[in-house]
C-alpha cells in the first residue's frame, strides 16, 4: 500500500479538481497502466548515485512499452531528461534519430556528459543504474509483459502523431511516470510531438520539499511554457492549453504563408514519414 499511497493521493487531488464526469473518467482510465505495472515509477528509490553532469536526452513514445521502462527508471532515479517524442508519423524527431543512430528505432538515450548513445532498452537501464543508481536494475523494470499490457490498456493514446506548431523553447513538465494525471499530459505532448524537459517528482524525491516551498502547493503535474511565461497545474488545464496553443487545425495555428513541417497535415506527413520501430 505504501507504494501506491502517495500516487493515489496525487490522483485524488486531481480528481477533486475535475469539473466534469468525462475528466474523472479519463483520470480513472489513466490509472490502469500504473496498476498493471504494480507501481513501477511510483516513487524515487533511496539508493541513488551521482547526478549527470549534463541533462540526459531520451527519444521515446509514450505508448511504447520499452520506452515506458526507461521513463520508470528516470522517475525512480530522480533524473531529469530532455524528452524528444517520436509518435507514429513523426517527422520532426524521426529525422534527428536517423542522423544520430542511422535508424529510427526507439527508445534511444543520449548521455552527453559521457559521450554515449544507447539504443537498447536493457543497455539503457544498465547504464542508468550503473552510473546514477547502485548498479542493480530492479526486477520490475525487467518485465516487458506488463508494460505491453499497460500500452493495451491505453488503447492507442499517445501513439499517433498529430500536426502541431513547434514551441520556440522547450516546455518543462514536472510530474512522474506513475501519476495518472501526468500520463494524460505526456500523451498529449507526444501526440503533438512537442519536446519538453521532464522533471520527475515522485514520492520520496528529495526535491519535493523544495518544490512545495517554492510553489506553495504539491499539485502535479505542472507545466511551464518559458516562451509564453505561463505556468499551469493539473492535467485538464495543461492539456487544454497545449491543444489551444500548439495543435494545428483550421481554426488555429500560424499565420498564412508557406507551410513547413510544423503545419503540414498529418496525413501528408505520415505518407513521407519513416516507420518508427520499437526496440526491446
UniProtKB/TrEMBL annotation:
InterPro entries listed in its UniProt record: Glutathione_S-Trfase_N, Thioredoxin-like_sf
Q: What domain of life does the UniProt record list for this protein's source?
A: Bacteria
One matching Pfam family, short form? Answer: GST_N_3
The GST N-terminal domain, residue ranges: 54-136, 169-250
Spell out the protein name for this chain.
Answer: GST N-terminal domain-containing protein
Which organism is this protein's natural source? Sandaracinus amylolyticus
Amino acid at each position: 500500500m505504501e507504494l501506491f499511497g502517495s500516487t493515489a493521493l496525487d490522483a485524488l487531488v486531481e480528481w477533486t479538481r475535475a469539473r466534469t464526469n468525462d475528466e474523472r473518467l479519463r483520470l480513472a482510465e489513466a490509472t490502469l497502466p500504473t496498476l498493471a505495472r504494480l507501481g513501477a515509477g511510483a516513487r524515487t528509490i533511496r539508493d541513488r548515485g551521482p547526478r549527470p553532469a549534463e541533462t540526459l536526452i531520451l527519444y521515446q513514445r509514450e505508448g511504447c512499452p520499452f520506452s515506458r521502462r526507461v521513463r520508470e527508471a528516470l522517475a525512480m532515479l530522480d533524473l531529469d531528461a530532455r524528452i524528444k517524442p517520436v509518435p507514429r508519423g513523426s517527422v520532426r524527431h524521426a529525422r534527428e534519430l536517423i542522423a544520430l543512430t542511422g535508424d529510427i528505432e526507439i527508445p534511444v538515450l543520449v548521455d552527453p556528459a559521457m559521450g554515449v548513445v544507447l539504443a537498447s532498452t536493457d543497455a539503457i537501464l544498465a547504464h542508468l543504474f550503473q552510473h546514477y543508481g547502485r548498479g542493480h536494475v530492479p526486477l520490475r523494470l525487467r518485465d516487458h509483459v506488463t508494460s505491453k499490457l499497460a500500452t493495451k490498456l491505453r488503447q492507442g493514446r499517445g501513439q499517433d502523431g498529430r500536426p502541431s506548431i513547434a514551441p520556440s523553447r522547450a516546455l518543462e513538465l514536472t510530474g512522474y511516470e506513475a501519476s495518472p494525471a501526468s500520463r494524460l499530459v505526456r500523451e498529449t505532448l507526444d501526440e503533438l510531438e512537442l519536446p519538453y524537459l521532464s522533471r520527475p517528482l515522485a514520492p520520496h524525491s528529495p526535491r519535493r520539499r523544495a518544490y512545495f516551498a517554492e510553489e506553495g502547493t504539491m499539485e502535479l503535474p505542472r507545466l511551464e511554457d518559458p516562451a509564453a511565461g505561463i505556468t499551469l497545474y493539473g492535467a485538464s488545464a495543461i492539456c487544454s492549453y497545449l491543444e489551444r496553443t500548439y495543435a494545428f487545425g483550421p481554426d488555429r495555428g500560424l499565420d498564412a504563408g508557406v507551410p513547413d513541417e510544423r503545419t503540414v497535415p498529418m496525413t501528408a506527413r505520415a505518407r513521407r514519414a519513416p516507420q518508427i520501430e520499437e526496440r526491446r
